[in-house]
Design a protein that fits this description.
It is a single chain. The chain is an alpha/beta fold. The protein has 13 helices and twelve strands. It has two domains: 133 residues, Aspartate Aminotransferase, domain 1 (Alpha-Beta Complex); 239 residues, Aspartate Aminotransferase, domain 2 (3-Layer(aba) Sandwich), CATH 3.40.640.
C-alpha cells in the first residue's frame, strides 16, 4: 500500500541533496568551528556559508542570524531576551490567542514574573488586524509578537502592516515564522521585522536546528550561557552538520518558490473544494484564501479527530489534528476555540499539510478515503442522526 504523507506542518522529509551536503561535516570535516586549526576552520567555513544562505532567504545580513536548536528556542530567546534587556522601557507585551505554545507559554512565564501580556482575540478565520494591535498598545508596550502564519489553520497574518505600526511606535516586533519560511516570500526589511524565528525541519532540512534573525542594533542576552559561540549570543558548540543542512534546505526551498506554491495551492484548493461536496456538515477552518499554500484544516461534525486520524492511518494516510507539540493532549485546539468553535466541533478537526512532493494521486486517495472514514465513524456516533 502506497502511503500518503500529509503532515508536513509537523515535520518534512529530509531531502537527499540536504543529507549529501551534511555528510562531509559528520565524517571528514568534523572539526570544532571555534578551533583555529585547519579542521576547525573548514567547519567554520561551512557555518559561514549556511549563515549567508539563511540570511539571503529573508533579505538579512549574515551577522543578524543566530543559529539555534529550533523554533522554540528562537521564540524563547527573542521574547525573554527583549523582556530582560529592555524592561526599563516597559513590561507590557502584545501577542495573539492563537500563537504556538513556544510563544504562549513563554509569555505566561513572564506574566508570573511581573509582566503584563495582552492576548489579542482573533476573528472566525484566525486573523488579527493591525487596528487591534494599535488599540492594545500602551506607553509601556515593549514587544509585539505575532506569528507569521498559523501552524494549525494556515491563516497568514498582516505581518508587514503590524511591523510598520511597531516601528512607527518604537515597539520591538517579533514573528514566529516557523510555518512560513520556505513557503512564503519573506523580506525582513520591507516587512519591518525586528526578530524572526525559523526551524529547518519545516522546509526539508534536519531536525534540531533553527535560527533567530535579530535586526542589527538590538541587543539580546543569551538564553544559554557558557561560551562565546554565535558572537556571544548562544553558547554551545554549533551543530555544524545540521546548520549546513539548514542552509542547503532553505536555498532549495526558495529555488522556484512561486511555482511550488502555485502547484501546492492547486492541490490544496481541490481538497477545499471537493471534500465538502463528498462529506456533509464539514467546516473549513482558517481563512479561505489568505492561508499557507500547503494547509488544509477541516472540522467534521459529530465525530472525533483522533478516530479520524487512526482510520486514515490504517488506510495509509498520515495527517494530524493540529500542532504536533500538543498531540498528546486530550484538550481541543486552543486555536480553534479562539476562532469560536465549540469543543465538540473543535474535537473533530483534521489538518492535512502538503509539500512539494505531494501528488495528484495523493489527493485522489484522500478524496476517496476520508469520506468513507467520515461515514463509517458517523454511523457509530451517538451525536449523528443523518
Amino acid at each position: 500500500m502506497k502511503r500518503v504523507y500529509l503532515d508536513n506542518a509537523a515535520t518534512t522529509r529530509l531531502l537527499p541533496e540536504v543529507l549529501e551536503e551534511m555528510v562531509p561535516y559528520m565524517t571528514e570535516l568534523y572539526g570544532n568551528p571555534s578551533s583555529p586549526h585547519d579542521f576547525g576552520q573548514k567547519a567554520a567555513s561551512g557555518l559561514s556559508m549556511a549563515r549567508q544562505q539563511v540570511a539571503d532567504a529573508i533579505n538579512a545580513d549574515p551577522s543578524e542570524i543566530i543559529f539555534m536548536s529550533g523554533g522554540s528556542e528562537a521564540d524563547n530567546t527573542a521574547i525573554r531576551g527583549i523582556a530582560e534587556r529592555y524592561s526599563k522601557k516597559g513590561k507590557h507585551i502584545i501577542t495573539t490567542a492563537v500563537e504556538h505554545h513556544a510563544v504562549l507559554h513563554t509569555c505566561q512565564l513572564l506574566e508570573r514574573n511581573g509582566y503584563e501580556v495582552t492576548y489579542l482575540p482573533v476573528d472566525e478565520y484566525g486573523m488579527v488586524t493591525v487596528d487591534q494591535v494599535r488599540e492594545a498598545m500602551r506607553p509601556d508596550t515593549v514587544l509585539v509578537t505575532v506569528m507569521f502564519a498559523n501552524n494549525e489553520v494556515g491563516t497568514i497574518m498582516p505581518i508587514a502592516e503590524i511591523g510598520a505600526l511597531c516601528h512607527e511606535k518604537g515597539v520591538y516586533f517579533h514573528t514566529d515564522a516557523v510555518q512560513a519560511v520556505g513557503h512564503l516570500p519573506i523580506d525582513v526589511k520591507a516587512m519591518h521585522i525586528d526578530m524572526l524565528s525559523m526551524s529547518a525541519h519545516k522546509f526539508h532540512g534536519p531536525k534540531g536546528v533553527g535560527a533567530l534573525y535579530v535586526r542589527r542594533g538590538i541587543v539580546l542576552p543569551p538564553l544559554i550561557y557558557g561560551g562565546a559561540q554565535e558572537r556571544n549570543r548562544r553558547a554551545g558548540t554549533e551543530n555544524v552538520p545540521g546548520i549546513v543542512g539548514m542552509g542547503k534546505a532553505i536555498e532549495m526551498a526558495l529555488d522556484g518558490l512561486d511555482e511550488k506554491a502555485e502547484r501546492m495551492k492547486a492541490l490544496r484548493d481541490r481538497l477545499i473544494r471537493e471534500l465538502p461536496e463528498r462529506i456533509p456538515e464539514i467546516k473549513l477552518n482558517g481563512h479561505p484564501t489568505v492561508r499557507l499554500p500547503n494547509n488544509v484544516n477541516f472540522s467534521i461534525k459529530y465525530i472525533e479527530g483522533e478516530s479520524i486520524l487512526l482510520m486514515l492511518d490504517l488506510n495509509g494516510i498520515a495527517a494530524s489534528s493540529g500542532s504536533a507539540c500538543t498531540s498528546g493532549s486530550l484538550d481541543p485546539s486552543h486555536v480553534l476555540l479562539a476562532m469560536g468553535l465549540t469543543h465538540e466541533i473543535a474535537h473533530g478537526s483534521v489538518r492535512m499539510t502538503l509539500s512539494d512532493e505531494t501528488t495528484e494521486e495523493d489527493i485522489e486517495k484522500v478524496l476517496e478515503v476520508l469520506p468513507m472514514v467520515a461515514e463509517r465513524l458517523r454511523k457509530m456516533s451517538p451525536l449523528y442522526h443523518g
